[in-house]
Amino acid sequence: MSGRNVLPTHYSRSSTQFPILSPNGRSILRIREKYLLVLVVIVFIVFSVIGVAFLPELKASNVYKYIKPADNLGPDLLGLVPPIESGHALGGHDTHTARAKFEDAERLRAKISQHFSYNLSQLNAVLPKPNENALPQDLTEKHEDFDDNWKPLVLPNGEDSDPEVRKKRDFIKEMMREAWVHYKTYAWGENELKPISKKGHSAGIFGTTKLGATIVDGLDTLFIMGMKDEFKEGRDWIQQNLNFDEINSEVSVFETVIRFVGGLLTCYAFTKDDMFLEKANSIAARMLPAFNTPTGLPHALVNPSTGSSKNYVWASQSSSILSEVGTLHLEFLYLSDITGDNTYKDKVISIRHRLNELPKPHGGLYPNYISPKTGQFGQPHISVGALGDSFYEYLLKEWIQSGGKDMEARHMWDEAIAAIDKNLVQKSRSGLTYIAEMKYDRLEHKMDHLACFITGLIALSGQSLDAQLKNHYLELGAQLSHTCHESYARTDTGIGPESFRFTDNIEAKAVRPNEKYYIQRPEVIEGWFYMWRLTHDNKYRDWAWEATQAIYKYCRTETGYSGIKNVYDVNGPKDDVQQSFLLAETLKYLYLIFSTDDLVSFEEWVFNTEAHPLPIFGKNPAYYKKSLN
Ligand code: DMJ
């Protein structure tokens, strides 16, 4: 068949009827019409280009700006339509018209609701477009209310009105006192205590020097608990002894920042004692050589005295670790903002921009390894537990710390949580919700104790979203908290293991011998702390109390607290280490669960990953600018 007969005959009209094509496919437009048509097309193209390029409301970058007001459109519109009951009030000479008017209004209201209910909730979840300039160069400059006249903090006592709750809180305070006294007796100035051997202990992360890690890490907890004498002896030790300048062994940049710099900054914010700020500043300065890499992504270890730095030999391809490069921000931002020295802030903001710009698996997941040479992700291992955890944590907390201004951080958090929710959140056979890990796109059905921190933060982040997402994240946080509790409840000691798995036969239980230990980690309790503050559901206090008793029963020795090697064995061996984060985090979160919410309130404070509360910009007078001498 020839082309001539392919087209149906109705295309073969006379020219007077504006034919487009002749049966042989050739144009039969008249020359004048052709010009006219071409002109119309050109005008259309020119206007489109001008519109997109120059009219602000058509710019792609402004779509967010217009989505945001749009999220109020429905409620605003509905607000303009008075409720039907108001029709009665109109009455008067034209009740009938008024009634009809309000019936119309009611129909409109119903229609809008029906039409918008889904879309509105989606739009409400869309936050303004992240913008690199969204984080002001210096937050404190924009703050007019707070100045050097802020007063050292007088903490509320936080006592609950219920005497039973007060008793439990006192019990936890007594555990803190014991941990402190035994450390003081047997290991004062050492990093940690070996409670059974009755001597000092130092993990590799602290190098070979005695840095008093337990003192620095535990000090703000003493302050919160009102243990003034102990606080004073710790403060004096720091003043006289804490000095990183001469340390000639490698220390962990991440651990130093979260425990030492973080702990000192909190003590400064609590007390306004310049000594704390000066120490924090000089220790942070000793970490800076680790950032001298081709990309500015820091190495894991630095020698504070020589400035040489390197990564762990065990890290895949000598990479840096996601949770380590991504968990310096709260401390460095606060330090820069209050001292006016932007060195620290520039480093961490540049890390975050870099991570933000990288293509991410599944649209918002971040592999655990990243090369400081190339800035590219390494092995595609993804985890909300070990190696990944606090990177995610700090995205949300940076946004909180900035008083809601740091939209880049918020956007990255929202994207990450959506991707975690979609790709990693799983249900076990019996319906337990958990977060799996991912390796080369395959799920590993294991959840670390470390990952349980995220339960509360997911719920917390939903608070600023629309009702649908708020409920979803609150529910997800609650379900995950429940699973983390199950990992405790399904052991013989009532304490949860380092990691737990989900198989056809096992749920929320450790499988391998090297997953069964407990080293006084806080994350499960930390999750309950957030859930308690958000819901005031007593089950979180009940769970926290069960955990307190279990830790007391199985970790306590005559001379301090120890980790245990097997949570499924009530007579199992102890590991003979009292971790500094027992004092910094675990006992602090427990104590706060049994306190009123105004003791270190969420309005003014954001907890760093080591549970050191840092001030929130614009909300807390301790976020102000100060010049160091
Ligand atoms: C702490 O040092 C911090 O919570 C860190 O983010 C993770 N590991 C320990 C406690 O488990």
Could you provide a short overview of the structure?
The chain is 47% helix and 8% strand.
Structure description:
This protein is mainly α. It has 3 domains: 1-55; 60-126, no CATH class; 163-615, Glycosyltransferase (Alpha/alpha barrel). The chain has helices at residues 31-54, 63-80, 86-90, 95-124, 163-187, 213-224, 228-241, 253-271, 274-287, 322-325, 329-339, 343-357, 389-401, 407-423, 454-462, 467-489, 523-535, 538-555, 580-593, and strands spanning 192-194, 199-201, 251-252, 301-302, 309-310, 320-321, 369-370, 381-382, 425-427, 433-435, 437-439, 442-444, 446-448, 499-502, 507-509, 556-557, 560-561, 605-607, 613-615. It has a 3-stranded antiparallel β-sheet with strand order 3-4-5. Strand 1 and strand 2 form a beta hairpin. Helix 5 packs antiparallel against helix 19 (580-593), helix 6 runs antiparallel to helix 7 (228-241) and helix 16 (467-489) crosses helix 17 (523-535). The longest helix has 30 residues, at 95-124. 44% of the residues are buried. Mean pLDDT is 84; it is low at 1-29 and 50-137. Bound molecules: 1-deoxymannojirimycin. 1-deoxymannojirimycin (DMJ) is lined by residues 390, 450, 521-522, 581, 585, 609-610. 1-deoxymannojirimycin is lined by residues 390, 450, 521-522, 581, 585, 609-610.
